C-alpha cells in the first residue's frame, strides 16, 4: 500500500463499496416496484402501458430504479472483471466496455422513460 | 519471471477441493445472477424504448416476450432478480454483523435461496392469473 497511486485506489474502493451498499438498499423497494409494474402491465395493450408509464410518479420511480441499477451493476461487473479478466490490455478494455454498457443502458432507458412522460 | 514460473510451485486450492457449503454456493449464484441481470437490463431498456417508439414497436416487443423462449428468459430474469435481492439482503446483514454465527449464516442462506425461488413462482402465478391463463 505504498505510494500515492495505491492510496487513490483505496479511496475509490471505499467509495465503490459505499455506493454498492447504498444502491443495494435503494434497490430493495425499487426492484419490487419494478416487478409489480411489469406484472401490472404484462400482456396489456399499448394504450394501458403508455398510460401507466406516463404517470409522473411511476416515471420518476422507473428513472430512480434505472439510476440505482446502473450504479450498482457497474461496480458489480467491475469486481467480476478484476477477479477474472487478467492482462493489462484486456483488463482495461473490459472495464471500459463495462462503463460504456452501463451508460448506454442508463441513458437509453431514461430517454425512453422521459419520452413517454413528456412526449417529445 | 519466466524461470520462477517453470518451477512447479504449489497452487492455491480452488473451488473443487472444498466441501460444499450453502454460503459458498450462494456466493457463486449471487455473482452469476448479478451477471445475468446485468445483461437483462437490455430487456428493461428494450421494453421502455418499445413503449416510447409506439404501438408497432410495442407489439413486436410483446410478440418476442410472449414466445415460449421469451417467457422462459423472463422467468429466469424474475428468478435472478428476486434471488439476487434476497441473497443481497444477507450481505447487508453481514455488513452490520448480523447473523454472523455459522448456523445463522447457513440459515439465512438457505432462506434466501428458498424465498427467491418461491417469490419468482408467486410472481408468475399472479401474472398468469392476471392474463386469465390460470
List the topology elements.
The complex is a heterodimer of chains A (120) and B (134).
Chain A: H1 4-41, H2 46-53, H3 56-84, H4 88-118
Helix pairs in contact in A: 1-3, 3-4
Chain B: H1 2-6, H2 22-53, H3 55-66, H4 68-95, H5 102-130
Give keywords.
heterodimer; A: 120 residues; mainly alpha; 3 helical TM bundles of succinate and fumarate reductases; 0% strand; elongated; B: 134 residues
Largest sheet of chain A: none
User: What would you give as the CATH superfamily of chain A?
Assistant: Fumarate reductase/succinate dehydrogenase, transmembrane subunit
The CATH class assignment of chain A is Mainly Alpha
Kindly name the structural category of chain B.
Answer: mainly alpha
Mean pLDDT across all amino acids of chain A: 93
SSE arrangement of chain B, N to C: HHHHH
The ordered string of helix (H) and strand (E) elements of chain A is: HHHH
Count of helical regions of chain B: 5
Gap from first CA to last CA of chain A: 52 Å
Average pLDDT figure of chain B: 92
Could you list the spans of chain B in which at least 5 consecutive residues all have pLDDT below 50? none
